[in-house]
Amino acid sequence: xxxxxxxxxxxxxxxxxxVKEVGDDEFARAWxxxxxxxxxxxxxDRQSGQxxxxxxxxxxxxxxxxxxxxxxxxxxxxxxHEFEQTCxxxxxxxxxFQRVVDEAISxxxxxxxxxxxxxxxxxxxxxxxxxxxxxxxxxxxx
Amino acid sequence: MSEHIxxxxxxxxxxxxxxxxxxxxLLTRAWRLTRACxxxxxxxxxxxxxxxxxxxxxxxxxxxxxxxxxxxxxLMEALxxxxxxxxxxxxxKPLIVVVEEAYRAASQNPARKRAKRTTRSDHPFTVIQGxxx
Lengths: 142, 133
Hints:
The structure holds two protein chains of two kinds.
Chain A lengths: L7 H15 L2 H21 L6 H16 L6 H13 L2 H5 L2 H13 L7 H4 L23
Chain B lengths: L7 H15 L2 H21 L6 H16 L6 H13 L8 H12 L3 H13 L11
Helix pairs in contact in B: 1-2, 1-5, 2-3, 2-4, 3-4
């Protein structure tokens, strides 16, 4: 089976949109720096015969793998930390940061986004679409 | 360190020479990454009205602070660490000395340097007539 190509553009677009929504200057700066440094990684690590697009996909995939705890270089880890630590506390502590990163990774891997309500353990059981119909069963004594 | 980098090109040139001499693929890669990531920092952090050179000087200044264990961003620290880890051991001149010398050379006040050059060209040495020793 062919490996699904990491869609760096989908990853970048999803994160960029959210960073804009958060509207924090320091966080936006960190994301700008990270994007610049990932472009640099792609350029420096591009193999002979490899396309620029493929090199960029790999750089973004390494960054994403770092979020999933994969081994990475100091500079890649530095980017992860810088991005995470500059995220405003509210968005970090309520799990929004992690959720958006997970979503971006899923989108980049061509997976559908998971349902945040169904996946949130605090949300409780899902509401049934229609109330169960109670019917009197014929026969039987208690 | 109370000085600041006044001419980042001097700093980069000095370290570049050492990296080329060392001729280690991992070090070369780390140095290329460092240079380009520092450029990215300068681009992002360039203030309105600030020159490209000044923004670069500031970025490299931050890098040296990080390299020397001072307060720095995670990424700056990481870039310094990547370079340090890739540097070969047992060389005549270790990276820390190279960075220190490069920093000193790049931190000289450019006005002072210009003044020195002007003095030399305006007042060439001449043979003074007379006098016995």
